[in-house]
Amino acid sequence: MKPQIELTVFLSGEVHSNWREEIRQAIESEGLPVRILSPVTAHTASDAAGDGLGPEAKAFWRDHKSAKVNAIRIRAGIAAADVVIVKFGEQYRQWNAAFDAGYAAAMGKSLIVLHPDEFTHALKEVAAAAMAVAQNASQVIEILRYVTMQE
Questions:
Q1: Which of 6, 21, 23, 125: disulfide with 33, CB 3.0–4.6 Å?
Q2: Model-level pTM?
Q3: Can you state the angle between helices 137-148 and 19-30, rounded to 10 degrees?
Q4: Residue spans per domain, the chain
Q5: Which CATH number describes the domain made up of 7-38+82-148?
Q6: Is 146 exposed, middle or buried (0-12, 13-18, 19+ CB in 10 A)?
Q7: Residue 52 exposure: Cα atoms within 13 Å on the Cβ side
């Protein structure tokens, strides 16, 4: 077998489905040379990321500190990634996902956006910054399979 290109991929975006696990399982089952990084996806852990810096009387300041601590992990993950995949899901508006996509694009990272067809118009600017726009995890795996193969 010929050598393959190794990739580090950062999975950002919605946390209400198992899309990350689908991608991880497909990467493992196909033996693709891909290392996965991601933000903390458990809401309670993410919301409490700044709690070690001391209690806050107002929720705004707790959120502010936790957002900054989370940003350390997210920025490091995006910086370490060769490819950033950002999924926009059906539930909630993912402002953080749009921010991550913009940050990755500003850093010159290869960006894959993943969202349902009905979000095409709403995400046109995000999609314009992406190298690819996929509608499901299978399409993402097809891209990763192609990119990692070396002939």
A1: 6
A2: 0.93
A3: 40
A4: 7-38+82-148
A5: 3.40.50.2300
A6: exposed
A7: 7
